[in-house]
Amino acid sequence: MSVLYENGDYEQKLGEVVQVGSGCGLEYLVKDAFGNSVFRIKGPKFGDCCCGLGMIGSVAFTVVSLDGKSVLGGIGKLWGGIAREIFTMADNYGLNFPADLDVTTKVVLLGSVIMLVSTEYLEIA
Q1: N or C, where is the chain less crowded by C-beta within 10 Å?
Q2: Contact, 1 vs 112, CB < 8 A?
Q3: Residue 29 contacts by C-beta under 8 Å, 6 or more apart in sequence?
Q4: Which DSSP helix (H) or strand (E) runs through 107?
């Protein structure tokens, strides 16, 4: 998924989010406008979601450095309570990241939340 900024007659690419293979889990690379990898988004393992561990509560994706050692932020579907989850289609999603992050990188992260929600990866909870 590419994030574009449109201003009048031209479009400017701000970055992209690309799914990469990671065994039994979900993982994405966040890239800047030039195609350089900035950081990774790591999702839950399939076993966590299919074996009952992820069926109740929040589903979390972690934003980590490229080497995977430093946690920079997170993306997640927030648990709204049993009544809200059963009787409504309303969901709340959270996104956190360092305040000193470049604004275009923040926009790409916000786009990744929309991508994750629209592909229903966060709907597995």
Answers
A1: N
A2: yes
A3: 17, 18, 20, 37, 40, 41
A4: helix 103-118
Residues 34-88: pLDDT tens digits?
Answer: 999 999 998 877 654 444 334 445 668 899 999 988 999 998 888 778 887 788 8
CA 26 to centroid of chain Cα atoms:
10
Question: How far does CA 1 lie from the centroid of its chain?
Answer: 12
- Residues 6 or more apart whose CB falls under 8 angstroms from that of 97 comprise 63, 72, 73, 106, 109
Tokens 């449109």 locate to: 6
Domain ranges of the chain: 2-124
| Residues 95, 26: Cα–Cα separation, whole Å | 17
